[in-house]
Structure formats: structure tokens, C-alpha cells
């Protein structure tokens, strides 16, 4: 039995690098950083005072009254989803709503709404708590809003696997189409938790960079002087479509989502397995699922968050699972770490790398770690023939997701 | 406070909470049918009106406030 092919026909994003996919991609190819100082008053007391803040504030794009009902993570998921939907040309395609699904997740969800409403509860009492609180903070909120606005009736799903969420949501979309439950799935991730509490929590774990005086140089995967990740906010959405469905309507195809591998470490709640065992299995499963030769995977958009331990564990895993030929990059060096949206944004970067035959750079890699023994595109973008590429995402909880995209 | 002043105050709240054009707000208008205020927004309108006019509007009264005029009368009687 021949398996269902799934292709990517639409992209949408709003990120620290740009308000849409084109501006984000341009910034990546130019090697620009989206990280800046947090100048808000609340930031002054924090050990971490930098973040990748959205380039375009959703308040400039959405109606004021509508924004009262949306957590920021929901607002930006909607913005990215509408971009992807328009990009795919599905608006007036006659797609049966019962064949349209949604798979959009968030790593942390509506925490900022929860905290803001708690402030109101404490200051003014329960009657002042917004009646929109629950739909704003519920973890399925972003997926539900996207489903509502696009009219999806084949099922709306919200994956949560911390920093692997965006990639796992895309993998679930692939499964939905392969299983015959949908012809089109709007999939991706969203995150918006630039707020003192989540920052204090991550900072207390000593997971974040404290290079407060040099925001643009703080996210530096694989560099000897890396000191943790830089929090970013944003949303990335892809439109996945059954290949035959896309061909029948003459849709423009960016790339094929050829395979996915999902594993769990079963090792520690936050530390990755020291030998990267779960990551190795995820990559191997994705390659096998995609049915591509390892040699064809010439590029990897790595998870590489700029933490001392994680960056090198991934290098070991790539060696074991893929070999020493792929050319790597870590676009988090520019965007910061978008947590639940990271895997979606980096899937978009991987897809565009394939389309344009170019690898965006890893910036701030001034002094490569001795353990970095794979080739990384540092500083400036590089032309590369990419028949197939891998995107890795790993999350607290021991989640490992690998996605393989191919040109044809 | 005159009925016109209360109506104008409600119009401000309705614009803020639900995006209703103040020119559309008149005593004969139904909150749900004419002004498109849904149930969650109505909760916000009531809480904002309590604050603005210094009155109490219990939940069991809210269902009787079908029109702007109903609300004006209730607020006028309470204040």
C-alpha cells in the first residue's frame, strides 16, 4: 500500500525577527538578532533582562475589543494562522470544513493572563475578574481560536510537550492526514510568556543567559562562552496538506513533510539523557519514516538553545544517528528560544532553506566549543543543495521530536 | 443624573467593552439583538456600570435588563 504523501502549502509567523515569514526569513539570512533589552519597569529586579520580543505588536494588527478576549499567545497564533491560510490559497477553495483540522500547541499557555487576573483578584476581588479569563488561559485556547476562525471541523488538537511542542504539533498533523482524518491541517506552535514570573522560574533553574549588557550576543549556541538560552515570543504555523489534494487544486508546494520521529527519554524531568539516547532514536525514526537516505539529509536546523549541556548532547546524537556530513545551523542564535513555538518556527526555516538552497547562519559562534565536531554555518548564510533536511526539537519532560522535510 | 447622562455613560462602557458605536446606543435598543453584546461582554458591562454609577446590579436582575432603557431605569432607581 502506498502511503499518503503530505506537503506544506502555507506558512505564517510572527517572531522577534519580523511580523511575517518573509521579514523573519530575510532577517535570518542577514544574520540579524531579534534579542533586545527588557526596558519594562518590572524587569529591573530580574537577573535576566533580555528577550526576543515580537517585532510587530499584535495590538497593531487586531481589533482592540477582540484583543480583550485573547491571551497574547492566542492573538499571535491567530495572526500566524491567518497568514498561513492566505498563503496556502485555501480561503475560497471549497475545502470541506469536516476535512480541515488544527494542531496548535503552546509550551506554557496563558500564564500571563492567569497572573494578570490573579493581580486583579488580589487587588479588587472576584467580581472584577474578567469573564474571558478561562478561555484566555486554557491550554487549548490558541488551537481552539484558530479552529474557530478557520471553521475547522475535523478536530482541533493542542499538543503540549514544552520546547518540543511546535514540532510535535506538526508531527500530529502529519498523522491526522496519513490516518485519513483530514485533508488539510493547520499546525504549529505559539508562545508569549515574557513576564517576570516565567523568567524568574527559568532564571532560578540557571537555564537562561544573563548577558544583559549584550542582548544581541547573548544567544550563542555551541560557542564556548554560551551561558544559557534567551527567551523569545512568537508563533509559527504551517499548512499541511494531503499531496493529492494540493495537486488537484494546483497549490504551490514548499516542501514535503516526509517523516517524523517522536520518542521520550524516561530519564529526568529536565535534564536530557547524557548520551542523547532518546534524541538518537527520534532522529533514526524520522529518517526511517521519511524513507530517505542519510546522505540526502544535507542540512539540520538544530534544537541548540545555547545551554552548556544541551548543545553538545545534540551534537553527539546527530553524529550517531545521521553521520558527520550534514551542515548545521541554530537559528535560535537570532530568534531566541520560542519554547512551544520554536519547533514550528524552525520547521519554517528548514522548509525555506530547502526551497532557497541556503542555510541561514548561526550568529555569535565566535569561539566554537571543543566538542563541536560537525560543520556549522557561522556568521553568514551559505548556499547549499538541500534535497532533505532535519529539524530537531527537545523539551523539558524528556520529549524528543525530529522532523524530516524533503524538496520533492 | 439624568436619563440622557446615564445613557451616555452606558455608551462609553459599551464602546470600551464590546466595541459598540456610541451613536447606536439608545434607550430602545436591545443589548443582544441590536447591539450584538454577547453574554460574557454583558457581564463586563454590568461590572463596569456598577463601578461607574456606584450601584449594585445583582445577577438575578441582569436577565431583566433587555434594553438600554431597562438598564437606565434600574440605575436611575438605585442611584
Automatic annotation (TrEMBL), chain A:
Domain (Ketosynthase family 3 (KS3)): residue spans on this chain: 3-407
What does UniProt list as catalytic?
163
**Function field:** Involved in the type II fatty acid elongation cycle. Catalyzes the elongation of a wide range of acyl-ACP by the addition of two carbons from malonyl-ACP to an acyl acceptor. Can efficiently catalyze the conversion of palmitoleoyl-ACP (cis-hexadec-9-enoyl-ACP) to cis-vaccenoyl-ACP (cis-octadec-11-enoyl-ACP), an essential step in the thermal regulation of fatty acid composition.
Q: What is this protein called?
A: 3-oxoacyl-[acyl-carrier-protein] synthase 2
InterPro entries, per the entry: 3-oxoacyl-ACP_synth-2 (IPR017568), Beta-ketoacyl_synthase (IPR000794), Ketoacyl_synth_C (IPR014031), Ketoacyl_synth_N (IPR014030), PKS_Beta-ketoAc_synthase_dom (IPR020841), Thiolase-like (IPR016039)
Q: Which organism is it from?
A: Micromonospora craterilacus
Listed GO molecular functions?
Answer: 3-oxoacyl-[acyl-carrier-protein] synthase activity
Keywords in UniProt for this one? Acyltransferase, Fatty acid biosynthesis, Fatty acid metabolism, Lipid biosynthesis, Lipid metabolism, Transferase
Keyword Chloroplast found: no
UniProtKB/TrEMBL annotation, chain B:
Location (main, coarse):
cytoplasm
Per UniProt, residues of the Carrier domain are 4-79
Record GO terms (molecular function): acyl binding; acyl carrier activity
Gene Ontology BP annotations = lipid A biosynthetic process
Q: Locate the O-(pantetheine 4'-phosphoryl)serine modifications and list their residues.
A: 39
Q: In which pathway does it act?
A: Lipid metabolism; fatty acid biosynthesis
Localization per record: Cytoplasm
Task: Give an example GO cellular component term for this record.
Answer: cytosol
Please provide the record's keywords in A-Z order: Cytoplasm, Fatty acid biosynthesis, Fatty acid metabolism, Lipid biosynthesis, Lipid metabolism, Phosphopantetheine, Phosphoprotein
- The reply on keyword Cytoplasm is yes
Question: Which PANTHER family does the entry link to?
Answer: ACYL CARRIER PROTEIN, CARRIER DOMAIN-CONTAINING PROTEIN
The free-text function statement in the UniProt record for this protein reads: Carrier of the growing fatty acid chain in fatty acid biosynthesis.
Family of this protein? Belongs to the acyl carrier protein (ACP) family.
Q: What is this protein called?
A: Acyl carrier protein
Amino acid at each position: 500500500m502506498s502511503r499518503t504523501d503530505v506537503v506544506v502549502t502555507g506558512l505564517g509567523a510572527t517572531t522577534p525577527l519580523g511580523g511575517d515569514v518573509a521579514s523573519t526569513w530575510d532577517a535570518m539570512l542577514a544574520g540579524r538578532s531579534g534579542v533586545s533589552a527588557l526596558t519594562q519597569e518590572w524587569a529591573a529586579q530580574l537577573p535576566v533582562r533580555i528577550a526576543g520580543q515580537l517585532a510587530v505588536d499584535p495590538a497593531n494588527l487586531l481589533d482592540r475589543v477582540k484583543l480583550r478576549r485573547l491571551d497574547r499567545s492566542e492573538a499571535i497564533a491567530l495572526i500566524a494562522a491567518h497568514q498561513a491560510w492566505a498563503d496556502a490559497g485555501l480561503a475560497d477553495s471549497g475545502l470541506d470544513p469536516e476535512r480541515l483540522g488544527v494542531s496548535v500547541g503552546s509550551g506554557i499557555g496563558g500564564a500571563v493572563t492567569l497572573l494578570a487576573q490573579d493581580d486583579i483578584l488580589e487587588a479588587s476581588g472576584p467580581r472584577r475578574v474578567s469573564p474571558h479569563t478561562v478561555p484566555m488561559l486554557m491550554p487549548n485556547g490558541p488551537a481552539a481560536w484558530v479552529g474557530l476562525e478557520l471553521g475547522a471541523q475535523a478536530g482541533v488538537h493542542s499538543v503540549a510537550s514544552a520546547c518540543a511542542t511546535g514540532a510535535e504539533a506538526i508531527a500530529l498533523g502529519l498523522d491526522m492526514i496519513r490516518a485519513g482524518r483530514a485533508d488539510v491541517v493547520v499546525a504549529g506552535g505559539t508562545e508569549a510568556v515574557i513576564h517576570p514570573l516565567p523568567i524568574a522560574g527559568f532564571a532560578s533553574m540557571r537555564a537562561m543567559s544573563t548577558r544583559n549588557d549584550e542582548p544581541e550576543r547573548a544567544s550563542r549556541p555551541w560557542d564556548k562562552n554560551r551561558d544559557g538560552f534567551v527567551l523569545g515570543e512568537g508563533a509559527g504555523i504551517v499548512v499541511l496538506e494531503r499531496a493529492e489534494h494540493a495537486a488537484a487544486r494546483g497549490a504551490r508546494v514548499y516542501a514535503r513533510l516526509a517523516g517524523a520521529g517522536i520518542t521520550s527519554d524516561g530519564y529526568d524531568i529536565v535534564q536530557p539523557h547524557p548520551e542523547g539516547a532518546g534524541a538518537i532514536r527520534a532522529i533514526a525514526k524520522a529518517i526511517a519514516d521519511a524513507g530517505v537516505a542519510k546522505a540526502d539529509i544535507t542540512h539540520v536546523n538544530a534544537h541548540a538553545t545555547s545551554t552548556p549541556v544541551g548543545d553538545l548532547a545534540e551534537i553527539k546524537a546527530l553524529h550517531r544517528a545521521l553521520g558527520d556530513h550534514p551542515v548545521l545551523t541554530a537559528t535560535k542564535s537570532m530568534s531566541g528560544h520560542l519554547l512551544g513555538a520554536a519547533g514550528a518556527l524552525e520547521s519554517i526555516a528548514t522548509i525555506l532553506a530547502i526551497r532557497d538552497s541556503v542555510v541561514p547562519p548561526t550568529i555569535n559562534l565566535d569561539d566554537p566549543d571543543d566538542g563541536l565536531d560537525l560543520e556549522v554555518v557561522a556568521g553568514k548564510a551559505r548556499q547549499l543543495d538541500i534535497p532533505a533536511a532535519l529539524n530537531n526539537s527537545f523539551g523539558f519532560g524528556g520529549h524528543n521530536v525530529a522532523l524530516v522535510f524533503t524538496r520533492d | 443624573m439624568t436619563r440622557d447622562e446615564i445613557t451616555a455613560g452606558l455608551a462609553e462602557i459599551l464602546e470600551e467593552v464590546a466595541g459598540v458605536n456610541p451613536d447606536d446606543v439608545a434607550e430602545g435598543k436591545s443589548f443582544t439583538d441590536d447591539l450584538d453584546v454577547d453574554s460574557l461582554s454583558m457581564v463586563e458591562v454590568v461590572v463596569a456600570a456598577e463601578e461607574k454609577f456606584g450601584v449594585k446590579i445583582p445577577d438575578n436582575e441582569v436577565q431583566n435588563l433587555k434594553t438600554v432603557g431597562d438598564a437606565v431605569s434600574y440605575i436611575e432607581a438605585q442611584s
